[in-house]
Design a protein that fits this description.
single chain; alpha/beta; Quinone Oxidoreductase, Chain A, domain 1; Rossmann fold; seven-stranded mixed β-sheet; globular
Length: 353
């Protein structure tokens, strides 16, 4: 086994703390990665606090991982020691079902293996995430990081980036498209950057007037304060796609009214409570659709990273030391970050005991 150390949750209510543990040995098709940076996703907090179901403790969160290959198995063909690579939200899937064969492993009929909180096929132990010194991953679930991008600011692309890129590609956003983005946070700010780079006209809907200037800096062409219904009315029947990144229950009816014929509202935020349902005629009269989307497949994630490399796109981040993770969690609950915390794992020290 490979000695590792990281920052783990030991209970739903307690703080994260240092922990020594072990990674599996490098198998024939495995890649060992020395972790340099890991983003902090809101789902990390929800998971370790048991808000999305039982959590196997101790649990090391983190699924926005960037690091360097430090060892490879004898059958590995895609990677070499020294490569700058990433690992996202999943580290395995069955690879046999229809979704896996179609390259959308996140929808695996038999359940993808999450980077943390899943069950490692090789050992039967809980998977442990990226707030740690090292990780071992099958080569098929490793991604190449563009050399021209800041690796720390790439880390959130492995979740926030692909989660917003996938619906933009699924609904074929490009020049001439009109895209609404609801919420400007970790996901929303990436949706604006990516939709704008694809050539779309981007309209940001926010409840915070203070975010208007920042939304325009990110690439938005219009910013509307969604609490002001009079401001929203001229936007009715005008958008092809709305990407809703908000993770709390809110009014979907008003958003649906903004869609033109055959428009789609895509939910990305994992609200623990149901949203009030739009009325039937909201769908019927304009053939509108309400959909959801979950991260993206490995091929699609590499496509996103390559696009970001070509266009110089990274996340807006605040780089923090490993010792300040608990403070970052509290600030994240207050929405006090623009727009993603990233842990510098080079500041992570091995526990004394």
């Amino acid at each position: 086994m490979i000695p590792a150390f990281g920052i783990a949750a030991f209970a739903a209510a307690g703080p994260l703390a240092p922990w020594r543990f072990e990674r599996r040995e490098v198998g024939a098709s495995d890649v060992q990665i020395q972790i340099l940076y890991c983003g902090i996703c809101h789902s990390d907090l929800h998971t370790v606090r048991g808000e999305w179901g039982p959590c196997p403790y101790p649990q090391v969160p983190g699924h926005e991982i960037v690091g360097r290959v430090s060892a490879v198995g004898q059958a590995v063909t895609k990677w070499q020691v020294g490569d700058l690579v990433g690992v996202g939200c999943m580290v395995d899937s069955c690879r046999q079902c229809d979704p896996c064969q179609q390259g959308v492993e996140q929808y695996c009929d038999n359940g993808m293996t999450g980077t943390y909180g899943g069950t490692e096929k090789e050992t039967g132990r809980p998977t442990q995430g990226g707030y740690s010194s090292v990780i071992v991953v099958h080569e098929d679930f490793v991604l190449r990081v563009p050399a021209n991008l800041d690796p720390a600011a790439v880390a959130p692309l492995l979740c926030a980036g692909i989660t917003t890129w996938s619906p933009l590609r699924t609904w074929k956003v490009g020049p001439g498209s009109r895209v609404g983005v609801v919420g400007i946070g970790g996901l929303g700010h990436m949706a604006v950057k990516l939709a704008s780079a694809l050539g779309a006209h981007v309209v940001v809907l926010t409840t915070s007037p203070s975010k208007a200037d920042d939304a325009r800096r990110l690439g938005a062409h219009e910013v509307l304060v969604s609490r002001e219904k009079a401001v929203m009315k001229p936007l009715r029947n005008s958008l092809d796609l709305i990407i809703d990144t908000v993770g709390t229950p809110h009014d979907l009816e008003g958003e649906m009214q903004l869609l033109r014929l055959d428009g789609t509202l895509v939910l990305l935020g994992g609200s623990p409570e149901p949203h009030p349902s739009p009325g039937a005629f909201t769908f019927i009269m304009k053939r509108r659709r309400l959909a959801g989307s979950l991260i993206g497949g490995i091929k699609e994630t590499q496509e996103m990273l390559d696009f970001c490399g070509q266009h110089g796109i990274t996340a807006d981040i605040e780089l923090i030391s490993a010792a300040t993770v608990n403070e970052a969690y509290e600030r994240m609950l207050r929405a006090d970050v623009k727009y993603r915390f990233v842990i510098d794992l080079q500041t992570l020290s091995a526990p004394v005991a």
